[in-house]
Structure formats: structure tokens, C-alpha cells
Design brief:
single chain, alpha/beta, Rossmann fold, 3 domains, 6-stranded parallel beta sheet, 18 strands, about 40% helix, about 15% strand
């Protein structure tokens, strides 16, 4: 068969549902093979957005998301999306075209060494030089993308290789077996937890996987331990739980850090060095048990006394079986911290000032979103407020990027989420700066007939940088810009535009749009003065003597 047919058949065998992208002339054989495939092509308006959508597909399913570009500028547009998937541990396969490699007559026009460009951004990158090698390259790339720690891979398919005849067949896809934990490590972990006086559980990004939620919930129910999470660990355990202390949206000085500082043992599940650690180890301080799919990356602030490297759910299940609640544990201080956290997080959540303040915004969104509703956050200072104040009830219902932390990903991520879960409510939450970086995908969402809502928070500036500029004592300079009329802008793409003009309209408009069909954009003017008053002044003034 033709090599491009073999490539598509190999992807079909891997269970690929969608390919997101912008094809070019070097992809035309591939495109023709895709035309009669079970795989659906999702044509986007920018390769970066295609990569964000595919990465989100991988994040939500655990299976590789696939995106397609042409050579040169098309492939270079994958760089940010590839880094997004690689740092965020999302399985992603990027496929790019290339000029013929056997008999090229076009000099260096548009030709870059994309394989070498991708090498520092990916777990695997390779050019196909013979059609018969396609099955093994596809199988190996997808295996590497999906295995822990997941990430980005890249395959370059030159134009002449795609058109050649070959005789190979796709590989069968085996079912992977999860590594079981070492019994000696489990025994040691149980003993450390039993002997601790104030053990505390931390749920990190690596725990946001299938099966882990049930195992950790059972562990907490049996032991009564208090827990908190990182931003990318949100929702692994239902945050309505009475023992939930909050999300480490800030690196230090928040109320939950009082509990972290008082703990004598931290059970760190799914720690990922990509996220800023919510605690630093020091000699003589709290002991740490590292439970993850792989061993810890040790440095001067993270050197766990015990490491359990295996499938996380299996490790937690083995520990739970051997562990009973202990009279030795003292959670009285954590109980007081919990009261402080709940009190301060809820402060001003009913303050209906206009422009809208972040606490009110978060509370209104949480009130209207169903338990399994998904919010996809772009990057800006509002991300801190949602991480800190918004309680996630289920895994992967708060899609935020605390790894690459790139602007422009929130809206495409919401499109990807809606395609994976068409039956669920999906809300993109973007600043005006981040939204405009990939706003052209409004056309994509409308063309796909998605029922999707985009909340655009307007402050006419790069608000987070402006806040930090002021915090460092610099003069206000260089960060303000103008915006289009977002209502008319949405309508020009065939979407529905709405504008919040007083605070009490927000909840009503949100409910209306979430229950309606089609694509809806809601413009919301915001006031970020609370950043200074709460996240800096209030937290700097607090004490941990409770």
C-alpha cells in the first residue's frame, strides 16, 4: 500500500479519533489517505491551537492526541503547543510534512531541520526515511508519548516518502501492565505514617490519572488524614471533602501553608517538579514520602526519606490495606487551619461591585457549573483566583496550565474538552490578552457546531504583569492596550455575543449561555485591585498562631 495509507492505518490501530491541524501541500498524500479513514480531520485556523486541542485530548483521555502541520512555518507553530504538552505531561503526537528527501529540486525553500528543532521539546522525534518503517515508528512514538511521564513526540513525513509503495503492516497494540510497588517500600511507608503525629497528604499533578481518585478517596476515608493539592492536582479528590485544606495556588504565605509548616510527615503523591513546590524540605524538618510512577528528582529542597515508585493507585491501595487510624495522630491544628481557609476564601464572594472582583467571579462560576462541568483556564492572574477559590468536584474539571503557563491555550483547550465530552458543560475562561492570541478559533468552534461558552475577562491590559510591575515599585508602563467590541467580534464569526454591564447579570447570563446551543462569548469587565489587597497585604499580615 502507499506509505501515507500505512501511516493512517497505523494511527487507526492505535485508536486515534481526531487529527487537529492545518495541512499543506507536503501533506496531500496523507490528507487523501485520511479522507477515507475513520479518523476525523479537525481543520483549525492556527497550528498552535491545533496542538493545544490535541494535547487536551491526551490530557483528558490518557490516549495520544494527534495534530498535523506542513513543513517550515507550519511546524514551527507547533513549538509552543509541543512545550505545553511536554511540560504538562499530556500525550501528544505532532506530525509534520517535509519536502522530498530523495530528489529535491527546490533548494532550501521553507526547509528547516524540524527534527532537531523538536529534540529538546519532546520525548521522541524522528524523520521517516522509508515507508516500511512507519508501523514501528508510529508504535514507538505513541508508546513513549503515553508512558509515564506522558509528553510530546514528533514524526516528520516527507512528501516523497508519503507517496511511495511499501509492504509493511501496522503493529498490534498490547495492553500495558502497571508496575506494582515493592512490598518493603510499602511496609516502610505504613510504619512512617503510623509513627507520625501530624501526617498530611499532598496530591500533585502526577496523581491526576485514571483509577487514582478512588484509591486516594478510600485512603482518606479510612485514615481521616487532611489533604491539600497543587494546581494541577485539583479535583483528584472531591474538594468538598471535610478534610480538604485547599489548593496551593501560591508558593508560600497562604493560610494552608500554616498546616504544611506544622506537619511532621508529608505524603507527597504525584509530585511533579514542573509545579512550584508548596513546601521546601530542610534538614530536621518534616519527613517526606514520595509516591509516584517514578523516583524523585532530588535537589537541595526535595530529598524524600522514602520513595515508592510504581503505579500510584496500586501503591495507595497497598498502603490503605495495611493502615488503620491511629490514636497517635493529632489533627486539631489542621482543623483550625481548615476553618481559617474556609472563612477567608469565602470572604467577598458575595461582593457585587462592578467591574467584577475575582472572588465574586469565581463564586458565580462555581454556582452555575454542574458537578462534572469543565472550566478551561487561560493564563493570567485570574488563574490564581480560580485555583485558590474554585472547588473542583471531579478530576480534570479544572483545566489549567501550571507547567508552561502559556497564554492562548485556554480557548483551544475548551474546544478539545468539548470534543472529548460533548455531553458536559464546558466553559473557557480567558483574559482579553490570552483570548486574542487564538480568538480565530471561534470560526472552528462555530463550524463544528459546538455548544461552548467563552468568558472573556476584560481589563484592557496584561493584568498579571501590570500587578507585578506595581508590586516591584515600578511605574505603570507598556502593558495597556485596546480591545475590539467583543460582542460584535463574536457575532462576526457567527457566534453569540453578550456583555455583562452590572454584577448581578453575570449568573443569569452564564446560565442562559450554558443551557443554550451554539457558541457564546460573554465579555466581563474585571477589577484586579483585590490582587494587592488580598494576595499580598492580607497574606503578608497573617500569622500562623491559631
Amino acid at each position: 500500500m502507499k506509505a501515507s495509507d500505512l501511516f493512517i492505518r497505523s494511527l487507526e490501530r492505535e485508536g486515534v479519533e481526531y487529527i487537529f491541524g492545518v495541512p499543506g501541500e507536503e501533506n496531500l498524500d496523507f490528507l487523501e489517505s485520511l479522507r477515507e479513514s475513520t479518523i476525523k480531520l479537525i481543520l483549525t485556523r492556527h497550528e498552535q491551537a491545533a496542538g493545544f486541542m490535541a494535547a487536551t485530548y491526551g490530557r483528558l483521555t490518557g490516549r495520544v492526541g494527534v495534530c498535523l502541520s506542513t513543513l517550515g512555518p507550519g511546524a514551527t507553530n507547533f513549538v509552543t503547543a509541543g512545550a505545553y504538552a511536554q511540560l504538562g505531561a499530556m500525550p501528544l503526537l505532532m506530525i509534520s510534512g517535509q519536502k522530498p528527501i530523495k530528489k529535491s529540486k527546490q533548494g532550501r525553500f521553507q526547509i528547516l531541520d524540524i527534527v532537531e528543532m523538536m529534540r529538546p521539546l519532546t520525548k521522541f522525534t524522528k524523520q521517516v526515511v522509508h515507508g516500511n518503517s512507519i508501523p514501528v515508528i508510529v508504535r514507538e512514538a505513541i508508546r513513549i508519548a503515553q508512558e509515564e511521564r506522558p509528553g510530546a513526540v514528533h514524526i516528520e513525513l516527507p512528501e516523497d516518502i508519503a507517496a511511495e509503495e511499501c509492504t509493511a503492516e501496522p503493529f498490534d497494540v498490547p495492553s500495558p501492565r502497571r508496575p506494582q510497588p515493592d512490598t518493603v517500600a510499602i511496609d516502610h511507608a505504613v510504619e512512617m505514617i503510623r509513627s507520625a503525629k501530624r501526617p498530611l497528604l499532598l496530591v500533585g499533578a502526577g496523581a491526576n490519572r485514571n483509577r487514582t481518585r478512588k484509591a486516594l478517596t478510600t485512603f482518606i476515608q479510612k485514615t481521616g488524614l487532611y489533604f491539600f493539592n497543587t494546581q494541577m492536582g485539583k479535583g483528584v479528590i472531591d474538594e468538598r471533602h471535610t478534610n480538604f485544606l485547599g489548593t496551593a495556588a501560591l508558593s508560600t504565605k497562604d493560610y494552608l501553608h500554616c498546616a504544611i509548616d506544622r506537619a511532621d510527615l508529608i505524603i507527597n503523591v504525584g509530585h511533579d517538579v514542573i509545579e512550584k513546590p508548596p513546601f521546601f524540605m530542610e534538614k530536621g524538618g518534616a519527613r517526606v514520602i514520595h509516591i509516584n510512577h517514578f523516583f524523585a528528582q532530588v535537589d537541595e529542597v526535595y530529598f524524600p526519606q522514602l520513595e515508592v515508585a510504581a503505579d500510584i493507585a496500586s501503591s495507595i491501595e497497598h498502603i490503605t490495606e495495611r493502615l488503620d487510624p491511629s490514636d497517635h495522630w493529632d489533627f486539631s491544628y489542621f482543623e483550625r487551619v481548615k476553618q481559617e481557609v474556609d472563612t477567608h476564601v469565602d470572604e467577598k464572594s458575595h461582593n457585587a461591585n462592578f467591574p467584577i472582583i475575582p472572588q465574586y467571579l469565581v463564586a458565580q462560576v462555581r454556582n452555575v457549573m454542574p458537578d462534572d462541568g469543565i472550566i478551561a483556564l487561560d493564563n493570567g492572574v485570574y488563574k490564581i483566583w480560580f485555583a485558590r477559590n474554585y472547588k473542583a468536584f471531579a478530576p480534570n474539571t479544572v483545566l489549567l496550565d501550571n507547567a508552561l503557563a502559556t497564554m492562548g491555550a485556554g480557548f483551544p483547550s475548551a474546544i478539545g474538552a468539548k470534543m472529548v465530552h460533548p455531553e458536559r458543560k464546558v466553559l473557557a475562561i480567558c483574559g482579553d490578552g490570552g483570548f486574542m492570541m487564538n480568538s480565530q478559533e471561534l470560526e472552528t468552534a462555530v463550524r463544528l457546531n459546538l455548544n461552548l461558552v467563552i468568558l472573556v475577562l476584560r481589563d484592557n491590559a496584561y493584568g498579571m504583569i501590570k500587578w507585578k510591575q506595581a508590586g516591584m515599585g515600578f511605574q505603570d508602563f507598556g502593558l495597556d492596550y485596546g480591545n475590539p467590541d467583543f460582542v460584535k467580534y463574536a457575532q462576526s464569526y457567527g457566534a453569540n455575543g453578550h456583555r455583562v454591564e452590572e454584577a448581578n447579570q453575570l449568573s443569569k447570563i452564564l446560565r442562559l449561555c450554558l443551557d443554550a446551543s451554539g457558541v457564546h462569548l460573554i465579555e466581563v469587565p474585571v477589577d484586579y485591585s483585590e490582587n494587592e489587597q488580598v494576595l499580598i497585604q492580607e497574606l503578608n499580615a497573617k500569622t500562623c498562631i491559631l
